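Minutes, project check-in
Item: structure for the 230-residue chain
Input as provided by the requester:
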Amino acid sequence: MTPADGSPNVGAMNLAEDLLLVALDPSSGKVRIQSTRTDPVLGGAALVQLVHLGRVGVEGAGRKARVLTIDPTPVSDPGLEAAFGRIRQRGRQAPREAVGRLGKGYRPGVLSALVQQGVLSHRDAKVLGIAVQRFELLDAARRDGLVARLRAVLLQDQPADEDTGPLVGLLLAANLLGLVVERPDHRQAKARAAIVAEGDWAADGVRQAVAAGQAAITAAMASGAAAGAA
């Protein structure tokens, strides 16, 4: 992850960027996250990142959990800073509210950052004559290495760390483990992910943020499903 002072760190993990990289299908160039899940899962990633940076904290647990700003200092990542700006002055708020605000409109900035870094490039594509957003994967090594690390944690019982642990927790909450494992391995991966999410791979504050993010993602997805069925 990014250093606690918010300064750039070459090679450091950015949760939102890596979530979208995992979700990218290199063949089609499509980001394989349903629109109803994009904002919640990226909002969860932003929450964890901001806790790691010491900008926000999570107090309490379960229904009593609340997100609050600890340090209003801007962060160096423009997309994350824009997300932070949506909750910075709002005082104590439920994780679901914070995650919703953090994730709203976050995806374009994350993808733009990956293009600026030379990890992705825009690809011209149309579906039924309508222009759609697709990307060319330029840095396959970054994505392949990340997927390999996640698969090792989920399928080979490799220990999670402060980078892979939050990713596993967020993918589990959003029901997106299928992005990194094949269908026959899904049950094993899901069971392992539940164990990883409770592990000691990071400081208590970060694990608390992951738990709050998971609950918020699950609630947002359930609400979206209910609205769609109405």
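Outcome recorded: Residues 204-229 form the longest helix (26 residues).
No further action items on this chain.
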